[in-house]
Amino acid sequence: MGHRQIRAVTDRIAARSAETRGRYLEAIHARAGSMRRSQLGCANLAHAIAACSTQEKTLLGGDDVANIAIVTSYNDMLSAHRPYARYPDLIKAAVAAAGGVAQVAGGVPAMCDGVTQGRAGMELSLFSRDVIAMATAVALSHDVFDGALFLGVCDKIVPGLLIAALSFGHLPGIFVPAGPMPSGLSNSEKSRIREMHAEGKVDRATLLAAESAAYHGAGTCTFYGTANSNQMLMEIMGLQLPGGSFVHPDTELRDALTEAAARRILQITDRRNGLTPIGEIVDERAIVNGIVGLLATGGSTNHTIHLTAMARAAGIQVDWHDFADLSDVVPLLARIYPNGTADVNGFEDAGGMPVLIGSLLDHGLLHDDVRTVWGQGLAAYRARPRMAGRNLVWHDVATESSDMTILRSVDAPFCPNGGIRILAGNVGRAVTKVSAIVAKSRVVEAPALVFRNQESFLAAFKAGKLHRDVVVVVTHQGPVANGMPELHKLMPPLGVLQNLGFAVALVTDGRMSGASGKVPAAIHVTPEAACGGGIGKIRDGDVVRLDTEANTLTVLVDAAEFSARDSADVDLAANEFGTGRELFSCFRRNVSAADRGASVFT
Prior knowledge:
Elements: H1 4-16, H2 18-31, H3 42-49, H4 54-60, E1 67-72, H5 87-97, E2 101-107, H6 113-116, H7 125-140, E3 147-151, H8 157-167, E4 173-176, H9 187-198, H10 204-214, H11 226-236, H12 252-269, H13 278-281, H14 284-297, H15 303-313, H16 320-327, H17 344-350, H18 352-362, E5 371-372, E6 375-376, E7 384-388, E8 391-395, E9 420-425, E10 428-433, E11 443-451, H19 454-462, E12 470-474, H20 479-482, H21 491-499, E13 504-508, E14 521-526, E15 543-547, E16 552-555, H22 559-564, H23 585-590
Parallel strand pairs: 1-2, 1-3, 3-4, 11-12, 12-13, 13-14
Antiparallel strand pairs: 5-6, 7-8, 9-10, 10-14, 11-15, 15-16
Helix pairs in contact: 5-12, 7-8, 8-15, 9-10, 9-21, 11-14
């Protein structure tokens, strides 16, 4: 029957979403089976198949053979996307051998927050998700496809692809990951050297050498940030093949999984033998399963925004209260950096997704009665893929972790509650991640120092003005103000202050994502300062209490006085130009609040 709280939250979401979900399903059902190439004008179809082989043209001239769209985020600058260079050829060959045709329908941009952090380009990052969704929609708009394979890995790419896939929810779709790079310099050692550089104890050459030893090859970064949280989500929501999230790029097993996805999409596009539209797979139960996975693994806080936006694309209304109520009953089962010392490769070696999903299923914390791209129910996701000679097979795996310092069962969790919590108070609502925060740091009450950007904070740190108990408040970093950049440049200095014994915390309407770690941080504060939110009323010296035990975020100022204050008026003109920012002014004017997905679509 499942856990009572899981059922209650799912039922609440379903009731809240009854009207919007109903309209969504009505719309995709009206289009189900509507794609008929034989109904296209001859000129239309000729354009679509002009570059195909003679045999492919013959096959696509009618409606009996499936045509599969490949939407790819390939580029060869970014490590996570470089492996996708080979995928189209692998997919086309596998689809052809199974009796279909595949075409690259389009490419989507893929930017890296690791490259743009602290730079103006980061202000385009969150909005790139909606650009990716629109670009994917353009690729699929030719309306000549029976199903789609989505090639994406990193932060905004997977959410953007899924938002678009749901706008074509009448089509089947499978997500095809690329996998993580092998382990290099440990994430904890990389973090230590970053903090030493922030203190001026090592030079730039030493820092660059350390960063390059950590980020050293093809695949996703190995820490458990948004990219790897994406892969976990797509698997636990049933949108990838079982057990494939964390298999290394450019290996025999990775190629076999890609080819298997190509064969599988043909099977679920077959109108006679099991058409499985992606809009039916992503229902209230799948969304709750995604949230449970996020909480159980201490995943990226970015998904309090992305999952909300993805759900809305399927007509499902998710609120941050749903995250909080699920967090009360979902235990923390994984310790992956920055919430532990191991990386995602260690998690995979300890048992990975099959062991995690199995334990959650056994204790009623996941909905098993869901549709997936692999079939009915999540039980198949207990199995791990492997090569048996030249053949790909799935086999049963151990039900217990092989390393209890990395992965545990529901019976013996690291923490009885999830890693993500929602704070509320006179500052507004905020997200916090407590998985890596030690008990003595989970409540911080200290005077505030207010900054309007990262640069002024870094200057104050270098000048020695922050060496005390302090709550650092960084305002005007929300989606309306400047696109809600991630503020990772703040973390090494704050880590230094914490190491010196000071009580420190961060409060911001910007983002920190899955790389947030040991410093308590209230992020995604909404309403944001640029919209008159309480965070903009905080003044230097105000005592701020960030309490992750009581889930509160409060300025300890007389209520009447605080209410009478005006939110700070900050000149945001510098955010309007340069590095493409002028092209995104329409996004800043029309974006929704963080707790509604920070999207231009909702």
